[in-house]
């Protein structure tokens, strides 16, 4: 603990409060305001958590000014180049890179727990064919809390581990079932001889009446996207999982809450929104019109896939995804993709525009990921589902960290109340017409 402090003095009666200032490994110091209400009788107000650290965490570090993203200390670009999604999952969950034996064991567990209960599979019949896949994913993952009663004691380390393995192994199967339901095709059971991403592609695109060969380029692209989406510190969905989990709720229910949060267009839903936006823009000549709309304060339109609460220089994930996008389009023979050309031109024009420069708005992780998904044949409405599969690992790592924190308490924010003061009930006959 550092001996730095920050002192505030009450204007009302001159009471002084010295608050400890704590330093992390890297990043800005944090003022511990825990005693503020008790000592001075005031709360802090920080809508959107712009200056508030909600917890201590040792999982992921972001330096938004320098465009740095570290998972357990390792730069994401090194992991993207040299690691695999399941190795990154092990790292995020356990804090260290696995030995060869540990990785083999972890991979074996994940790839052999891919089936879901048949009853759970029947849940999909209750959805209309055009239900949004994120609605199906969130509901069916939430329904998992009605199963596995033998292993959801959150105070048991072994139960937490079983939960982690189950959800990471089964979420691709649930996602694929949502897809198959939406296109009216028979569900394809998982294949445990395939790696994580190849199995996902198999469950998506194979049909019982034909041979399906997984394209290794597609599996490689998916693996990279999953590494880049695996965790991102205390974002909205991760904070939701932590908050829901802090009440001691069933962990599958907490993950379901995270999926619901990710769905929003300001968060994971942006990858779907980017493709819809590019389709609307249609051609390069229309770009200036849409840039003008994005800058117009009376128009709700925003350039989707642009801007980030934390990254004010560039999003390191966007750079890697743009490079992968070139590679995938080349290797899959989509070199003349008009969508990619449009995205590149839009990025170029926006980055030269004073409005975007002044506000430090750069392409984020979602700007190019949808173009890769599109090239892989994944429909637009499934893009955020792909994000959710990858982010499940981060959610689980944060949920576990929160549960074992000796200072764990239920998350319970306060408020600045601006409603009516105490007043007496008015009988209906005296309320006017
Ligand atoms: N297009 C046009 N203007 C924008 C955009 C945009 N995409 N993003 C921010 N601005 C403007 C905003 O109007 C404001 O301008 P002013 O200062 O004149 O009022 C300024 O930039 C700051 O914006 P903010 O809304 O206060 O920033 P925020 O940190 O609250 O929001 C954001 C961050 C990501 C929600 C926002 O940039 C946005 O809506 N982007 C588009 C949606 C998107 O791509 N989301 C994915 C985020 S990355 C992946 C993930 O989180 O899952």
Would you write up a description of this structure?
This protein starts with a strand and ends in a 29-residue tail after the last helix. The protein is mainly alpha-helical and 433 residues long. The chain is globular. It has 18 helices and six strands. A hairpin with a 2-residue loop joins β5 and β6. It is 49% helix and 6% strand. α12 packs across α17. The strands form two sheets. Strands 1-2-3 form a three-stranded antiparallel sheet. Strands 4-5-6 form a three-stranded antiparallel sheet. Carboxymethyl coenzyme *A binds next to α17.
Strand-pairing-aware structural class = mainly alpha
Low-confidence stretches: none
Order of helices and strands: EEEHEEEHHHHHHHHHHHHHHHHH
Ligands, ions, cofactors: carboxymethyl coenzyme *A
How many angstroms separate the termini? 63 Å
Sheet with the most strands, sense and barrel status: 3 strands, antiparallel
Strand order of the largest sheet: 1-2-3
Strand segment tally: 6
Task: Give the count of helical stretches.
Answer: 18
The overall pLDDT average reads 94
Secondary structure layout plus pairing:
Layout: E1 5-9, E2 16-22, E3 30-31, H1 36-40, E4 60-63, E5 68-71, E6 74-75, H2 76-82, H3 85-94, H4 100-111, H5 118-122, H6 133-143, H7 157-183, H8 196-205, H9 216-229, H10 236-246, H11 251-262, H12 270-281, H13 287-295, H14 316-331, H15 338-351, H16 354-358, H17 365-375, H18 383-404
Antiparallel strand pairs: 1-2, 2-3, 4-5, 5-6
Carboxymethyl coenzyme *A is lined by residues 48, 235, 266-268, 270, 294, 302-309, 359, 361, 364-366.
């Amino acid at each position: 603990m550092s001996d730095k402090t920050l002192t505030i003095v009450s204007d009302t009666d001159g009471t002084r409060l010295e608050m400890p200032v704590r330093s992390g490994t890297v990043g800005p110091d944090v003022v511990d305001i825990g005693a503020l209400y008790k000592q001075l009788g005031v709360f802090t107000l920080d809508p959107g958590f712009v200056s508030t650290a909600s917890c201590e965490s040792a999982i992921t570090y972001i330096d938004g000014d320098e465009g740095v993203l570290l998972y357990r200390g390792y730069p994401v670009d090194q992991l993207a180049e040299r690691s695999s999604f399941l190795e990154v999952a092990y790292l995020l969950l356990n804090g260290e890179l696995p030995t060869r034996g540990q990785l083999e064991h972890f991979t074996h567990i994940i790839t052999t727990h891919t089936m879901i209960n048949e009853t759970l599979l029947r849940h999909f019949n209750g959805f209309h064919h055009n239900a949004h896949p994120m609605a199906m994913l969130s509901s069916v993952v939430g329904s998992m809390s009605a199963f596995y009663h033998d292993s959801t004691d959150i105070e048991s380390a072994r139960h937490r581990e079983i939960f982690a393995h189950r959800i990471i192994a089964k979420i691709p199967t649930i996602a694929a079932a949502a897809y198959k339901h939406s296109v009216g095709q028979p569900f394809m059971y998982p294949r445990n001889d395939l790696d994580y991403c190849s199995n996902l592609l198999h469950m998506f695109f194979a049909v019982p009446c034909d041979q399906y060969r997984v394209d290794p380029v597609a599996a490689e692209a998916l693996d990279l996207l999953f590494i880049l989406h695996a965790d991102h510190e205390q974002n909205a969905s991760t904070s939701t999982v932590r908050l829901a989990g802090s009440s001691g709720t069933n962990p599958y229910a907490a993950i379901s809450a995270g999926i619901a949060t990710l769905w929003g267009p300001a968060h994971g839903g942006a990858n779907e929104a980017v493709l819809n936006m590019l389709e609307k823009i249609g051609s390069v000549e229309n770009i200036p019109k849409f840039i003008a709309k994005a800058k117009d304060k009376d128009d709700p339109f925003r350039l989707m896939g642009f801007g980030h609460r934390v990254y004010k220089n560039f999003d390191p994930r966007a750079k890697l995804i743009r490079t992968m996008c070139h590679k995938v389009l080349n290797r899959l023979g989509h070199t003349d993709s008009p969508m990619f050309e449009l995205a590149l031109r839009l990025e170029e024009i926006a980055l030269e525009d004073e409005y975007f420069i002044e506000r430090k708005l750069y392409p984020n992780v979602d700007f190019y990921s949808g173009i890769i998904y599109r090239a892989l044949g994944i429909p637009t409405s499934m893009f955020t589902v792909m994000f959710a599969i990858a982010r499940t690992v981060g959610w689980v790592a944060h949920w576990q960290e929160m549960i074992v924190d000796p200072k764990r308490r239920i998350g319970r924010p306060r408020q600045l109340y601006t409603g009516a003061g105490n007043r007496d009930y008015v009988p209906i006959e005296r309320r006017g017409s």
